[in-house]
Specification:
Oligomer: heterotrimer
CATH topology of the largest domain in chain C: FAD/NAD(P)-binding domain
Number of strands of chain A: 23
CATH architecture of the largest domain in chain A: 3-Layer(bba) Sandwich
Number of helices of chain A: 14
Chains: A alpha/beta (about 450), B mainly beta (about 80), C alpha+beta (about 375)
Number of strands of chain C: 22
Largest sheet of chain C: 6 strands, mixed
Strand order of the largest sheet of chain C: 8-2-1-12-22-21
């Protein structure tokens, strides 16, 4: 095929490494990215006038961040780079891209989706109060804006990011009031053997924990979060049940919450990719082969948007998916390189399985949420309303529950309530979460201005 | 820049959301009357921090860098919606 | 779980608004009924349409049916026990050109003979009554007793009420074949066979294959409505809004719910496939739709689209539904092909079909919708 039209969505570690491989093979991909600069969320670059060094910004990951940024910058004009551009729909081998208020359709022969992930959250009474943010948000505030989300912060949830963000806050002079982890010490030990697939990463984690302890940051495990306390103006504490079952309150001015990650899989859905339920992470993910080929012939997937394996794995997956694309386009691939990348992916997968075991998604909390808890932030739909769509109205699965209750119908399209909704519906149906189905994606992936201009600049 | 009519000092490189949190403490109100909202994800995903400009344009506060002379509103400017009497 | 009912007075193929409301009204008349739905009730045309409870602009001979249906809409909460968000807020069609004034005036006169009250409003009157309307509108045709409802809720509400009253509603049940065996119909499904002396085909876009199997082919095509919804906005568009135009590209409709979202559709239909469970919104159509939306309500330039959808609707070549007895096979009835405007008439169709099946006649004229307009049929069996 002469000059295949290749589009990569996402300029994070996966998109960057994929573009690099394609450019090395003499191709010229178009990279569509929502950010104003490359790096994705994990290696998000601060605004141009920001003077903090890579070391200050990315800590132990500075070398990797520097390398990914340098790799992207080195691509220069050998790619067509479209920053600040939202991929809002996909249909019939065309990607609809929005920049400002102008939208155009980009036809492709091959598409690589590397849109990354967002925080996985479990709703909590009071979680919509100003001052309650996702863990990712807490980290972005620090990295990209140089400020904390509050003076006295409680971090709650589970997963490696919980400890990393707490550590970063401590280092930046904002020692957290506490770290409340829903997983137990025993669960964390049970993940160790698998996490040993990447001894370096495991060691980093152990060091983080030690540093938090030395810094005097209380770390409580096996907690059950009950409420973000406060009033209309903000947060003034958290209420939780500790490992002994006693109810406790802790004063704070901000909360950072998150339970590991949730794949940004809407574009894969709109492209028509098939999904499967991954029991290890308790999420529906787009199906891929070992190379990153989706169920659609010309759609490839890499990074946390396809499998939640982390930033290092995203680089590997980006390279592999590019190799798959090249092979499918008739370019010869070096079998040894591919085999080496696939071995690395296996290590990442093992490690991620350990992480999932050590920091499990506390799905049972969904069933415990009081009826008055807002589940869908956008549409202000409560757990009780969602449950009633099952029990009173007879919705047998989550899309029907959405149709009845409006959960997941708002501006964010179920990004932040979708996984919890599936759990609540499953609990109300007294069934397994995979039987409750998967919220289907609907364009636009993010809100689209009605005052929209076409390619010709006309509305 | 101004926020809800008041002049505020901001740092170059800050986002509109950072400016709002420093000076106003929130970004807007839930359209369904359940209180103030101030964003949640800071990465353009949760759509919880859409604000208004004085001209009636909309900005997602967490993904909009501040610019000189911005006129940011936590509520829609008056007169945008011709509500029948 | 009890053994499912395998035999009933009536088996209905298709659990859309027509199938579910027919089942409900058949139970009111004491007949036993089973509804077989391929996916979930109301999932296609019945659940994905715009939600217009509009009589204005309908093909005139359909108005008696629409009037009967409007009366049911007014009682729908009491009948079904569910709030389906029915709001009789009125329906206005704006005019962009002087030529249309004669058209809407003639329609108003004729509709009046069917008891439909319409008012033609001039340039100033529409601005006073509907301050959101754009500067191009020169007049409006106002139907004060029409309105809108939430299509996602209506068919399930009828299904629940029918089930409450003793109907069997079987979801996720693919009908493989319908045959007449002796006096009975045999309806084969992946979950076993059902038998009944009466079968009603209410399978929407999928109905043509079933009618053809009885030697009554019809020109029915699948099409997908192109629907979108904005973020919540202050409640400023109270009526359902449409356009009176002879130009297809100008056909647009919108409504706002009190929660604030503005729902719109129109301009063109997308393709839909009978083989797929979902029809998809075509993002290419967004520019043309937005242009027309902004002609109706320019303030919407401040708003954002948050979601789009489509579904599978069945369109007849002549845009007139197929409704009534087969006329060829005794005990076989049809109610399909509502061509993208069957939501308002749905409850009325259910009531009429139940009356026809139970009594052999109907007090509402439906002869214009008979399948015999496509030739053959009518002579081999007695209607009803």
């Amino acid at each position: 095929m002469a000059d295949p039209r290749i589009i990569i969505v996402g300029a994070g570690p996966a998109g960057t490494r994929a573009a690099e491989v394609l450019v090395a093979a003499g191709l010229r991909p178009t990279v569509v990215d929502e950010g104003s600069r490359s790096g994705g969320q994990i290696y998000r670059r601060p605004p141009p006038n920001f003077t903090r060094s890579h070391d200050a910004l990315y800590g132990t990951e500075a070398a990797k961040a520097r390398a990914v940024h340098a790799a992207f910058d080195a691509l220069g004009d050998r790619i067509t780079y479209r920053p600040e551009t939202l991929a809002w729909a996909i249909k019939d081998d065309r990607l609809h891209a929005l920049k400002g208020s102008r939208s155009e359709a980009l036809a492709y022969d091959a598409l690589l989706l590397a849109p990354g992930a967002t925080d996985r959250v479990m709703p909590l009474p009071g979680w919509t109060r100003p001052g309650c943010y996702s863990l990712g948000a807490a980290q972005i505030a620090l990295k990209a804006q140089g400020c904390a989300i509050g003076e006295r912060v409680v971090f709650l949830g589970t997963g490696p990011l919980l400890y990393l963000v707490a550590y970063q806050y401590m280092r930046a002079g904002h020692a957290p009031a506490a770290v409340l982890d829903t997983s137990s010490y025993g669960q964390q030990l049970s993940g160790l053997a698998l996490m040993a697939a990447r001894p370096g990463q495991l060691l980093k984690g152990v060091r983080l924990l030690r540093a938090l302890r030395r810094g005097g940051v209380p770390v409580l495990r096996n907690v059950e979060p009950l409420e973000v306390l406060g009033d209309a103006h903000g947060v003034d504490g958290v209420r939780f049940r500790d490992a002994d079952g006693s109810e406790r309150r802790l004063a704070c001015t901000a909360v950072g919450m998150g339970y590991h990650l949730r794949a940004e899989s809407q574009l894969a859905d709109l492209a028509g990719c098939e999904f499967r339920f991954d029991p290890a992470v308790q999420q529906w993910l787009p199906q891929t082969d070992a190379m990153g080929r989706s169920s659609r012939a010309n759609v490839y997937l890499a990074g946390d948007g396809a499998r939640l394996l982390g930033a290092d794995a995203a680089e590997t997956a980006g390279r592999l998916a590019a190799c798959a694309m090249l092979a499918d386009l008739g370019h010869r691939q070096d079998a040894r390189t591919v085999a080496r990348l696939q071995r690395a992916m296996k290590r990442h997968a093992r490690f991620a399985e350990g992480v999932a075991r050590a920091f499990p998604w506390p799905h049972a909390l969904a069933a415990e949420l009081p009826d008055a808890t807002l589940v869908c932030r956008c549409e202000a739909i409560t757990a009780g309303e969602l449950r009633a769509s099952v029990t009173a109205l007879g919705a047998p699965e989550v899309n029907r529950a959405k149709a009845f209750s409006r959960v997941g119908m708002g501006r964010c399209q179920g990004r932040f309530c979708g996984l919890a909704s599936q759990e609540i519906v499953a609990a109300a149906c007294k069934g397994r979460v995979e039987a409750a189905g998967r919220l289907r994606g609907q364009a636009p992936v993010k809100p689209l201005p009605i005052a929209l201009l076409g390619e010709d600049g006309r509305g | 820049m101004t926020i809800d009519g008041a002049c505020v000092e901001v740092l170059e490189g800050d986002t509109v959301l950072t400016a709002l949190m420093m000076h106003r403490g929130f970004a807007g109100h839930s359209p369904f009357g359940d209180g103030r909202r101030a964003g949640f994800c800071m990465m353009g995903a949760c759509q919880d921090c859409w604000v208004w400009t004085g001209e009636g344009d909309r900005l997602r506060a967490c993904s909009s860098p501040i610019q000189d002379g911005m006129d940011i509103r936590t509520e829609a400017p008056k007169g945008l919606w011709p509500i029948p009497g | 779980m009890a053994e499912p009912r395998r035999r009933a007075d009536v088996v209905i193929v298709g659990g859309g608004i027509v199938g579910c409301s027919t089942a409900f009204f058949l139970r009111q008349r004491g007949l036993s009924v089973v509804v077989l739905e391929r996916w979930l009730v109301g999932q296609q045309a019945s659940g994905t349409n715009f939600g217009n409870v509009r009589r204005q602009g309908r093909y005139l001979p359909q108005l008696p049916l629409a009037n009967r249906s409007r009366e049911i809409w007014g009682r729908i909460r009491e009948l079904t026990g569910s709030d389906v968000e029915f709001m009789p807020v009125g329906h206005v069609r704006f005019l962009w050109s002087e030529e249309q004034i004669d058209v809407v005036e003639a329609y108003r006169r004729e509709a009046a003979t069917y008891g439909l009250e319409l008012h033609i409003l001039g340039r100033n009157a529409i601005r006073e009554k509907f301050p959101f309307v754009g500067p191009e509108a020169i007049a409006g045709s106002w139907s004060p007793h029409d309105g809108h409802a939430n299509p996602r809720l209506v068919s399930p509400a009828f299904a629940r009420a029918a089930r409450r009253d003793g109907a069997e509603i079987v979801e996720n049940c693919d009908v493989l074949a319908v045959e007449k065996v002796g006096e009975d119909f045999l309806v084969s499904t992946a979950q076993g066979d059902y038998r009944a002396p009466v079968v009603m085909i209410a399978a929407g876009a999928w109905a043509a294959g079933l009618s053809a199997a009885f030697g009554q082919p019809v020109p029915l095509k699948a099409g997908g409505p192109q629907m979108g919804v904005t973020e919540p906005l202050p409640y400023f568009v109270h009526p359902v809004v449409g356009v009176a135009t002879a130009t297809a590209e100008e056909v647009i409709y919108l409504r706002q719910i009190p929660r604030g979202n503005v729902i719109f559709g129109g301009v063109r239909r997308g393709p839909a496939s009978l083989g797929a469970e979902r029809a998809k919104y075509d993002p290419d159509g967004v520019f043309a739709q937005f242009r027309q939306v902004l002609r109706l309500a320019p303030s919407l330039s401040h708003a954002r689209l948050i979601r789009t959808w489509s579904g599978v609707e069945g369109y007849m070549d002549d845009n007139i539904p197929v409704m009534g007895a087969s006329g060829k096979v005794a005990g076989l009835y049809y109610a399909f092909g509502f061509s993208g405007h069957g939501f308002q008439t749905g409850p009325g169709v259910g009531d009429v079909m139940a009356e026809l099946i139970a009594t052999g006649r109907t007090t509402t004229p439906i002869d214009d919708f008979h399948i015999r307009r496509f030739g053959e049929g009518g002579d081999a069996g007695s209607p009803g």
